[in-house]
Write a structure and sequence with these properties.
The protein is an alpha+beta fold and 319 residues long. The chain has helices spanning 54-68, 102-119, 174-180, 285-292, and strands spanning 7-15, 21-29, 34-38, 83-86, 132-136, 141-145, 183-190, 206-212, 216-221, 242-246, 252-254, 258-263, 268-272, 298-304, 307-313. The longest helix has 18 residues, at 102-119. The two termini are 12 Å apart.
Length: 319
């Protein structure tokens, strides 16, 4: 049932692995065809580098709206004219000028997309980060981002081993990696069963192990190692990621979500990326999949000349 004559507010929240909370109150005004994204209550800026500039928050919001819209719309300020965004100053999402932000672009931005899409009940959480790995020494340097599981939605299974919501990199071919760098790619494959179960399953993450043939300085910058990607509508959560240091002469060590260390010759780093969340109760898969063909949460833009107004059709949740 489409309700277009009243104001409706949706509340969502999620957490970064350091415990920082991101809150969203999403208000849809169907009479005036406007929407407000209010992040009041979000945690303060942090000492680390996961603060995110306001401009990236805006980019994440317009990306989500474009995903929800069936029409081709331009990527410009005009699309946001009916949208109001409120972000508290000196927060994680609007930090001071001196705050570190390098991790915000590739990590915290993903939490914004998860929260917005989850608010519309359109998509479960995806892997939630870019799984950033860098290593090098006096002779070489290397940086890559690593895929994970995509979130499931009302009429699709999440994709496995894919960059979600954000990517501008292609991972290096194994033959090129081993030819140009003193490393061995010991394993690179899908982590079977790491996507959340549901009527529509979340995508699986990956396992990637690199062994170093020389001493290397190694840095890992990731998320979703503490808080799992969540499923929606009864779907199960995806599995959390896990970063391990396999010592040549010593035990395995959990590196946590973010770390920097010097690895010795024949040591390895193992990155297990998260799976995506599932959608819908797995025990009702047949009924949900049949219903999904006829019922979707939609949004569309009405345009006149260069001005755009937003009309979000809200589908009432099942009783």
């Amino acid at each position: 049932m489409c309700i277009r004559d009243r104001v409706h507010t949706i509340h969502e929240k999620d957490y970064m692995d350091d415990g920082s909370e991101i809150k969203l109150a999403l208000t849809i005004d169907r009479k005036n065809l406007t929407a407000t994204f209010d992040f009041e209550g979000t945690s303060y800026e942090v000492l680390g580098n996961t603060n995110i500039p306001k401009s990236v928050v805006m980019s994440a919001i317009i990306y989500c709206l474009r995903c929800l819209v069936d029409l081709e719309i331009p990527l410009n300020h005009g699309c946001l004219l009916p949208i109001q965004v409120k972000i508290p100053e000196q927060s994680l999402l609007h930090p001071s000028e001196s705050a570190a932000i390098v991790g915000g672009n590739v990590l915290t931005s993903q939490r914004i997309t998860d929260i917005v899409l989850k608010g519309f009940q359109y998509c479960a959480d995806s892997q939630g980060c870019m799984n950033n790995l860098t290593f090098g020494n006096d002779h070489v340097s290397y940086y890559e981002t690593i895929a994970g599981g995509g979130g499931a939605g009302p009429y699709w299974h999440g994709q496995s081993a894919i960059q979600c919501h954000m990517t501008n990199t292609r991972i290096t071919d194994p033959e090129i990696l081993e030819r140009r760098y003193p490393v061995l790619l010991k394993e690179f494959g899908i982590r079977k069963g790491t996507g959340g179960q549901g009527a529509f399953r979340g995508g699986d993450g990956v396992t990637r192990e690199i062994e170093f043939l020389e001493e290397m300085k190694v840095s890992i910058l990731t998320e979703r190692r503490v808080f799992a990607p969540r499923g929606i509508k009864g779907g199960e959560n995806g599995q959390r990621g896990l970063n391990l240091w396999r010592q040549h002469k010593g035990p395995f060590v959990n590196l946590g979500a973010k770390n920097y260390l010097i690895m010795k010759k024949y040591d390895s780093i193992i990155i297990n990326s998260p799976g995506g969340g599932g959608y819908g109760n797995v025990n009702e898969a047949g009924k949900i999949q049949e219903r999904s063909e006829n019922k979707k949460t939609e949004s569309y833009f009405h345009g006149a000349a260069h001005k755009y107004t937003i009309c979000l059709l809200y589908t009432s949740p099942e009783p």
